[in-house]
Write a structure and sequence with these properties.
The chain has 447 residues and is of the alpha/beta class. The protein has helices at 38-46, 66-84, 94-105, 121-133, 148-156, 173-185, 211-221, 280-294, 299-311, 314-339, 364-373, 403-427, 432-436; strands spanning 52-53, 116-120, 139-144, 160-167, 170-171, 190-195, 225-229, 257-262, 273-277, 344-345, 353-357, 376-377, 379-380, 393-397. The longest helix has 26 residues, at 314-339. It is globular, with a radius of gyration of 23 Å. It binds 4'-deoxy-4'-aminopyridoxal-5'-phosphate.
Length: 447
């Protein structure tokens, strides 16, 4: 007897899905807040060689000595390949966790390897912390503006993000106090204060020494856990003979802060290795959450980094990155001063970004397609606000292009800004960008 053919699948109920996506009605509610990052949507265009991309935050890997990295990988595979390619511990390789405590000591953090959880980039640490603390409708307080990747995580867990004002010295303590007091009076449950104290992404600002203990103390008094995200902390520019790092928020109250670090900017993002340093009980839950998500971080990546840290001059490498990025920061600031007299911008003391405020009436999001046709790309400020504001701002990343390309990019950008400004002055509203808006930022069904 021949087997009967399988019964045909029930056709999808018309009206439940859409023609573009038959599964539309089946997605979990938490996915409805997800949207493509404006940066990702831009990448395909901005990566074309003729475009000067001041958009993505890609580290300058041509500055990494690839022969040394290749040697490390080669030796690792030959000598310990069977371990490196095997599953590992959910919490992360103990040798690497020990080395991570040494890296953090550079920022005044005293820690024990037991309290470190290695993650797949600090992005995964952001996800894990949010997963174990945030229920739908809980509040996450975050700087205005905030790192777009963190906002995406908070949205995915259906958090309500409330922004708090920043100025040139970082998060404003009085504004934080007022916001937390108001939220408490409204009966809201605030779970996290998310902050990037050093060389802020996207703001380019650094939380002043004076404000650090104040911010930690305000959060402590309101019973709010601080999520300190610090991937750029070692990339300061001010004194290249030594690394003048600010004390981490963690060092003021280790029980009240989860600290996140990463090797993405000080070494290379391709390894996807970051970490969380957390109070002991929190650390246990982070490990459980991580095991259920990924079983364990990559042994290969962790052991490569551990070998690199113990056998290569990693501090020398960080110093050479700082030199490269400082030169690019200077090129950006000079070009802005030369070409953009009507705008203002922050002066980053480290990291990858400067935050530009456009003249009144300009809309960086609407202007973006026009900028790309002029062969320059940036990220509009709206990407960094959970509340739909930020139209007047743009983030410029200077980490990747050479100083000459940066200069050319800013010059092109200034042409676009000036043309828009002329339109605003004549008609009270920008023109070219608005006409093209929508061609670049795909809606949720296209991205
Ligand atoms: N936090 C901030 C502030 C970042 O800028 C980034 C990367 N752009 C991350 C976290 C994530 O970095 P990674 O996952 O590569 O460690």
């Amino acid at each position: 007897m021949t087997a009967s053919p399988p019964a045909p699948q029930e056709p999808l109920t018309p009206g439940r899905g859409t023609r573009l996506d038959p599964w539309y009605a089946s997605y979990a509610e938490r996915t409805h807040g997800m949207k493509a990052s404006e940066i990702r949507a831009l990448f395909s265009v901005a990566n074309r060689p003729e475009v000067v991309s001041l958009a993505g935050g890609m580290p300058y890997l041509a500055g990494l000595p690839m022969e040394i990295v290749a040697e490390v990988t080669d030796r690792l595979l030959r000598e310990r390949g069977a371990v490196a390619l095997q599953y590992g511990s959910g919490q992360g390789d103990v040798a690497l966790r020990e080395q991570i405590t040494t890296v953090m000591a550079e920022e005044g953090i005293t820690s024990h390897p037991d309290d470190v959880v290695v993650t797949t980039g600090s992005q995964q640490a952001l996800d894990l912390v949010t997963r174990i603390f945030v229920d739908p409708g809980d509040v996450v307080v975050a700087e205005a503006p905030s790192y777009v990747g963190a906002l995406g995580v908070f949205r995915a867990y259906q958090a309500d993000v409330v922004h708090v004002e920043m100025d040139d010295d970082g998060l404003v303590p009085e504004a934080l106090e007022a916001t937390l007091t108001r939220l408490a009076a409204e009966g809201r449950r605030v779970k996290l204060l998310y902050t990037v104290p050093n060389f802020h992404n996207p703001g380019g600002t650094t939380l002043s020494l004076e404000r650090r203990p104040q911010v930690v103390e305000i959060a402590r008094r309101h019973g709010v856990l601080v999520l300190e995200d610090n991937p750029y902390g070692l990339l300061g520019f001010d004194d290249l003979t030594e690394n003048p790092v600010m004390p981490a928020l963690h060092s003021y109250n280790p029980q009240g802060v989860v600290y996140l670090g990463s090797f993405s900017k000080t070494f290379a993002p391709g390894y996807r290795v970051g970490w969380a340093l957390a109070p002991h009980a929190v650390r246990e839950r982070l490990v459980l959450a991580s095991e259920s998500a990924i079983l364990c971080p990559s042994n290969m990546s962790q052991m490569s980094i551990a070998t690199y840290l113990s056998t290569c001059d990693w501090r020398g490498q960080v110093k050479s990155y700082r030199e490269v990025y400082r030169e690019r920061r200077d090129a950006t600031l000079h070009a802005l001063a030369e070409h953009m007299p009507h705008a203002t911008w922050t002066r980053p003391a480290g990291g990858f970004y400067t935050w530009v405020t456009l003249p009144e009436g300009l809309d960086a999001q609407a202007m973006l397609p026009r900028a790309v046709t002029e062969l320059v790309a940036y990220v509009p400020g709206t990407a960094f606000y959970a509340d739909g504001t930020g139209h007047r701002y743009m983030r410029l990343s200077y980490c990747y292009p050479t100083p000459e390309r940066i200069h050319e990019g800013v010059r092109r950008l200034a042409n676009v800004v000036n043309a828009e400004l002329d339109l605003v002055r004549m008609f009270g509203t920008g023109g070219a960008g608005t006409r093209l808006a929508g061609t670049l930022n795909p809606g949720p069904n296209q991205a």
